[in-house]
Amino acid sequence: MTALGMEYYVERIVKERGIQPTRVAVFLAMLQLWKVQKRCNPFQISRRKIMKLSGVKSIVTYHKCISELKDRGLVEYNPSYHPRLGSGVRLK
């Protein structure tokens, strides 16, 4: 995807009705990691990196954000329970 693709995702999250700012922050953190990983889809994320980039302090809040982003159809999320492997995310 090109930079135009990133603009599409930013515009899409901004237009979501009723989405909380923490969800937007987590989604934008995901976009940052997607960009760093050369816009590969799917790409890897770690809870620690997403929480740091988004400013989310609570693991419970992090999981709620991921769940809502999944439920809204913005991402596919495949958790990894391995301590060193990141979870897989696909932007939809």
Mean pLDDT equals 93
Q: Which spans have pLDDT < 50 for at least 5 consecutive residues? A: none
Strand proportion, as a percent range, falls in: 5-15%
Report the span from N to C terminus: 12 Å
Overall 3D form? globular
Largest sheet: 3 strands, antiparallel
Radius of gyration: 12 Å
> Number of helix segments?
4
Q: Could you tell me the number of beta strands?
A: 3
| N to C succession of SSEs | HHEHHEE
Helix content: 40-55%
Structural class: alpha+beta
* Largest beta sheet: strand ordering: 1-3-2
Short synopsis of the structure:
With 92 residues, the protein is an alpha+beta fold. It contains 4 helices and 3 strands; from the N terminus they run ααβααββ.
